[in-house]
């Protein structure tokens, strides 16, 4: 039976021009390129300059995605931004993006805070609205300026994170309702609030009127990240009635190359199918998956018709997975 599916018809990304290498960091805190690259796989990350905001990267990524989709802002009828680093406490960064882009009045706009799983969560919302026939074209963005909530005197955390944005345009399309269709074939999202304090901002607007710094029990997050990322892949593939043999690419949340290696090993996915950007992006939280997706489409690695599975894990804890035929 025919079915409406969300096709990803255009992707885009934006990174700050400023690059911070591991050697640059070793001048700020007591660390070394050797420690950072062997423990995390990160070699450099992009960091926003003064006067550059999350919305700036969203807008650039959105313009690229619109151009790649052959659409204009007039076509967009939903804007959703996944972020933990909004420009303002309110209104949403999605509203700011709408203002800058000139999105027409009446188009719904909202942010979603699901930390590193933000893009998968935002995709679930946009995809549901498309499949219900409520909207035709959604602008789905993951974006962060994590450099603003990192304590630059804490070597345990400041070496891990980066800034940037990735965007995708989801478009309603009539498909056959089979797992050979193009478009989003499944999404699964999860959370377990018992880990609320394991990875969190140490402050908050309601709590103490501050935005605070990233606070993390790295070892505990590391331990939980592996089974969560595995579950994201397995559950979304199962929902789509597909297996790992069917996939062309795996995009994991980009937090640490050692986590990615362990997940790929557990799932028995060949390294050649695993897309890794953590080396030059660092951990960009909600931006990490859409950045990797947009970069890999731009470079020609991911092609039309390829089957891509993605999985995420982050603060909350939140985790999830999605399967898309591009
Ligand atoms: O997006 C989801 C959120 N985040 C993650 O998924 C991150 C998950 N966790 C991790 O990736 C890892 O736990 C880290 C990369 C954060 C840390 O790696 P680790 O192998 O667990 O190191 P550790 O925290 O056990 O630290 C080992 C040593 C410590 O020294 P002592 O106590 O053994 O003397 C740290 O003080 O390394 C020290 N250390 C550093 N040394 C140089 C911690 N950070 C640094 C640093 N440079 N930047």
Give the gist of this structure:
This protein has helices at residues 22-25, 33-40, 54-69, 93-101, 118-131, 155-158, 205-208, 218-239, 257-267, 278-281, 288-298; strands at 3-14, 19-21, 44-46, 78-82, 108-112, 137-145, 163-175, 183-191, 199-201, 214-216, 249-252, 307-314, 318-325.
Number of helices: 11
Physical arrangement of strands within the biggest beta sheet: 1-7-6-4-5
CATH superfamily of the largest domain: Thiolase/Chalcone synthase
Percentage of residues assigned to helices:
25-40%
Described by its quaternary structure, the protein is single chain
> Which secondary-structure class do the elements indicate?
alpha/beta
CATH architecture of the largest domain: 3-Layer(aba) Sandwich
Proportion of beta-strand residues: 25-35%
Task: Examine the coordinates and then state which fold CATH places here, giving the name of the CATH topology of the largest domain.
Answer: Peroxisomal Thiolase, Chain A, domain 1
Approximate shape: globular
Bound molecules: oxa(dethia)-CoA
User: How do the helices and strands follow one another from N- to C-terminus?
Assistant: EEHHEHEHEHEHEEEHEHEHHHEE
What report would you give on this structure?
The model has no long low-confidence stretch (mean pLDDT about 100). The protein has helices spanning about 20-25, 35-40, 55-70, 95-100, 120-130, 155-160, 205-210, 220-240, 255-265, 280, 290-300; strands at about 5-15, 20, 45, 80, 110, 135-145, 165-175, 185-190, 200, 215, 250, 305-315, 320-325. It is α/β, with parallel strands linked by helices. Helix 4 (about 95-100) links the parallel strand 4 (about 80) and strand 5. It has a five-stranded mixed sheet, with helices on both faces. It is globular. It has two domains: about 5-175, Peroxisomal Thiolase, Chain A, domain 1; about 185-325, Thiolase/Chalcone synthase (Peroxisomal Thiolase, Chain A, domain 1).
């Amino acid at each position: 039976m025919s079915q409406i599916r969300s096709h990803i018809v255009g992707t885009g990304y934006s990174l700050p021009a400023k690059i911070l290498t591991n050697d640059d960091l070793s001048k700020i805190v007591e660390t070394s390129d050797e420690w950072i690259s062997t423990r995390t796989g990160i070699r450099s990350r992009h960091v926003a300059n003064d006067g550059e905001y999350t919305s700036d990267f969203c807008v650039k990524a959105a313009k690229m995605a619109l151009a790649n989709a052959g659409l204009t802002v007039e076509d967009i009828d939903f804007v959703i931004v996944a972020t933990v680093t909004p420009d303002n406490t309110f209104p949403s960064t999605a509203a700011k993006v709408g203002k800058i882009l000139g999105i027409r009045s009446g188009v719904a706009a909202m942010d979603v805070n699901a930390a590193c799983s933000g893009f998968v969560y935002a995709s679930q919302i946009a995809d549901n609205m498309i499949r219900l026939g409520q909207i035709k074209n959604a602008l789905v963005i993951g974006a962060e300026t994590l450099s603003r909530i990192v304590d630059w005197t804490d070597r345990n955390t400041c070496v891990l994170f980066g800034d940037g944005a990735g965007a995708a345009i989801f478009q309603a399309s009539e498909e056959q309702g089979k797992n050979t269709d193009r478009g989003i074939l499944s999404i699964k999202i999860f959370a377990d609030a018992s880990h609320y304090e394991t990875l969190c901002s140490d402050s908050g607007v309601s709590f103490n009127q501050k935005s605070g710094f990233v606070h993390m029990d790295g070892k505990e997050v590391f331990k939980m990240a592996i089974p969560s990322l595995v579950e994201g892949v397995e559950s979304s593939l199962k929902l789509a009635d597909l297996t790992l043999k069917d996939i062309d690419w795996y995009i994991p949340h980009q937090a640490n190359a050692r986590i990615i290696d362990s997940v790929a090993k557990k799932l028995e996915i060949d390294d050649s199918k695993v897309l890794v950007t953590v080396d030059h992006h660092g951990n960009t939280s909600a931006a990490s998956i859409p950045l990797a997706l947009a970069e890999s489409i731009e470079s020609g690695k991911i092609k039309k018709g390829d089957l891509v599975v993605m999985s995420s894990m982050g603060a909350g804890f939140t985790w999830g997975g999605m399967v898309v035929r591009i």
